[in-house]
Amino acid sequence: MATGKRYYWIKLKDSFMSSDEIDYLMSQPDGANYVVLYQMLCLKTINTGGCLVSQIGEMLIPYDAEKIQRECKWFPLSTVRLALSVYKQIGLIFESPDGILTISNYSDIVGSETDYSAQKRLQRENRRRQIPVKGADNNEDNNVDNVHTEKEIEKEIENRERVRDNGSPAVDAGLAEIIDSYEENIGSFPPAAKDALMGWREIFADDLILLAIKKAALSGVRKWNYINGILKSWKNEGVKTLGDVQARDQRRKPPAGQQPKRSAADDYDEIFGELLGGSTT
C-alpha cells in the first residue's frame, strides 16, 4: 500500500570517477578519503535539499567541521577540515549567505521518488508491456501505422486506470508531502493558502516548494507569506531547478570576510511587503 513516503538515492554518471573534480581530489595526499567523504555528505543531505543541517525540535543547526567529523566517524577532524576547503575551491560545495554548507548541483546528484509514484510507474510499465501492438500480424514496414505511439499507449493506460478506479481521484502524495513538511517545519498549514500552493505546483516541482519551506524554517520566519515570497522571487528570477536555486544563492553570497548586515527575519517586511499576498501571479 502506497503511503506517500519518499525514497532517495545518489545518481552518479559513469564519468564521475574520471571527472576533473574527482581527478583533482585523487591527486591530493588524502584524496581517496576526500572522495568517500564527499559521497557520504551527499547522503547526509538527501532530506534537506543539499543543505548540511540537522534539526532539533524547531531549531535547524548548520553543520560545521566538528559535526561532520562526529557524523562521519571514519575521518579525523583534520581530514574533514582540509576536505571542506578543497570542496569549496573546486566548487563541489558552497556556503550559502546564511552560512549553511550546501552540495553544488544537488539536483543532478540525488534522485527521489515517493512509493506512490514508484507504484504507478511500475503499473504503467506493466500495462505498456501488456498492450497489444497494432498490426502485429501485418508484415507492412510502416512502423508509424503498425505500432502504438508512446502517447497512444499512455492514453490507453490512463483510460484503463480511470475505468478501474471508477473515476475516483488518485491520492496526491506530493501535496501530502508538502503539507507534512510545512506542518513539521513551520506550523499548522493555513487552509486559505491551498489555492496559492496549488498555483505554485503548476510552476515549480514539488522539490522546489519543499526547499522553500526549509529555507523559511532556516531563516526563522515561520509564515506562509514568507514562503510565498521566496517562490515569487524565484519565479521572477527564472528559477526552475534546485541547481538554479544553488546558483542564485552563490551569486548572493557576500564577499569573503563580509557578513550580511541584516538577517532574513529583519528584512521580511521590507523585502516582501505588499508582494506577500496569496496570489502566485
Compact summary:
By secondary structure, the protein is mainly alpha-helical. It is built from 14 helices and six strands.
Structural overview:
This protein is mainly alpha-helical and 281 residues long. The chain contains 14 helices and 6 strands. It has helices spanning 20-26, 31-44, 65-71, 77-90, 106-109, 115-130, 143-146, 150-164, 173-185, 194-201, 206-219, 224-236, 242-252, 264-272; strands spanning 6-10, 53-56, 59-62, 93-95, 101-103, 110-114. The chain has a two-stranded antiparallel ribbon with strand order 1-6. A two-stranded antiparallel ribbon has the order 2-3. α9 (173-185) runs parallel beside α11. The two termini are 37 Å apart. Residues 133-148, 163-169 and 262-279 have low confidence and may be disordered.
List keywords for this structure.
14 helices, 53% helix, mainly alpha, globular, 6 strands, two-stranded antiparallel ribbon, single chain, 281 residues, disordered C terminus
Write the layout of secondary structure elements.
Elements: E1 6-10, H1 20-26, H2 31-44, E2 53-56, E3 59-62, H3 65-71, H4 77-90, E4 93-95, E5 101-103, H5 106-109, E6 110-114, H6 115-130, H7 143-146, H8 150-164, H9 173-185, H10 194-201, H11 206-219, H12 224-236, H13 242-252, H14 264-272
Antiparallel strand pairs: 1-6, 2-3, 4-5
Give the low-pLDDT segments.
133-148, 163-169, 262-279
SSE succession: EHHEEHHEEHEHHHHHHHHH
| Overall spatial form | globular
**Average pLDDT for all residues:** 75
Number of helices: 14
Helix content: 40-55%
Report the major sheet. 2 strands, antiparallel
Q: Work out the radius of gyration.
A: 23 Å
Q: How far apart, in Å, are the first and last alpha carbons?
A: 37 Å
* Side-by-side strand order of the widest sheet: 1-6
DSSP, total strands: 6
Q: Percent of residues in beta strands?
A: 5-15%
Structural class: mainly alpha
